[in-house]
Amino acid sequence: MSLTGCLAGSAEVADFTREFADAPAVERLDLSTADNMPFTGGVGGTVFLRPDLDDAQRRAFSEDVRGFGEDLIGDASDPRYRIDLDADGWRFPVLIDRPANEDVLDLVENYHSDSRVVSGAVRSSDSRRTVDHVSLVVAAPTDVFALFAESEKALPAAARNAALTVETPGDASVAVHVEGRPGPWLQTAREVYGGILAALPLRAFRVSATELTLKVPDENDAGAAATLAASLLDGAPVDVFVQSDLVTLAPGASGATTRALLSGLDAAAHTGLLAVWTDDRTASFRFDSRESAGTFGAALSDAPEAAEFSTLEVTVGPADAPSLRVTATPDDLAERLSLVNALAADDGVTSVSTVQGISLDLGLRTPPSESALVSSARALRALSDGNERVCVEWPGDTLCFSAARAGDPAEIRDATPQKRAFLEAWNDAA
Prior knowledge:
By secondary structure, the chain is of the alpha/beta class. The chain folds into 5 domains: 1-88, 2-Layer Sandwich (GMP Synthetase, Chain A, domain 3), CATH 3.30.300; 101-182; 184-245, K homology (KH) domain (GMP Synthetase, Chain A, domain 3), CATH 3.30.300.20; 247-318, no CATH class; 346-430, no CATH class. It has helices spanning 11-20, 55-73, 98-112, 141-154, 185-199, 222-233, 256-263, 290-300, 330-344, 370-381, 417-428, and strands at 2-3, 26-32, 43-49, 81-87, 90-93, 117-123, 133-138, 163-167, 175-180, 204-207, 211-216, 239-244, 247-249, 273-278, 282-287, 311-316, 324-328, 349-355, 359-364, 389-394, 397-402. Strand 10 and strand 11 form a beta hairpin. Helix 2 (55-73) runs antiparallel to helix 3 (98-112), helix 8 packs antiparallel against helix 9 and helix 10 (370-381) runs parallel beside helix 11.
């Protein structure tokens, strides 16, 4: 049995635990309050069922839980109950309304017995009688469209108006994802999928009645993919977005401005470029080395397309832990990147990150000498707009202060001689 920290302390959680923790059908409980917030009461969470249960045993246990919930909330307008069951690749709610709960169980049993379906989930917003979303994971891409079309007749009454998602597993060679409600658009989507797959390598195909997002391996194929999709859609009111292994788009972003920027740069400026992300107002470029990042930054100085962005970001190293990060306005990026590159060239530096006007962060490999900190202070001060949060970190210690307060030593806890030397150098460089 597993309970979620202090959130598991409500009386309702205790009652539910006493009632069901030792039930033969239960493998473990993961419980909290109904809304997963402290001190709000009720009971919510997931009951993990044993994998060897048959449909009748799952149905009987669901009815027992439903009865508990019905007794708990009665006619309360603010439900204090939210329980899901997790069983053999499926997660689904136990609804208070008996006919609606029977519909959920019918749905799960129907798709669980369908060899095309790998797993699935059902979601409810009120835990009473509403089914808001049904998702199915299927093994074969072609089955995505078939199951989506069949759902119009296959879904029981309680789920008839639910949003539907049918998709392939995450490790599929082509990730296919169809969402929304069945309609005439689905046949068009199926034809577009077949047409693009026959013409171009494809990583992912995500479609609804109003949007189509493609992902191709090669960024050089992005334009062809967009053109082909538009042709196959034949005027259908569907927005088309194309990503690649190189370029990732935020939801709703076209990527047109970023692609125009990249196409306007010399090939040398693309060397070492690993990944691009954009929301059309900002863009981030990740490189394999400081040298490649520096070449790119210098090239941006002469790129008129850069002015279309509010900020640009250049990073070096792993996406989740870059060793270098510079975020700045297009006009300032090249100069700031050059300064950061010079600072990062020191063997004692493990990381440098600067977000213009917001933060300056320096990571050091070993506890620094006073002279090393003085040198770092001067270099960081050259990057400051006077408003950042400044932090220097080394093994066993950290120095942080607000640049707007001019690094007043009185504000620094445990102001060692090293830290005082840094602050004096910072103030002297102002």
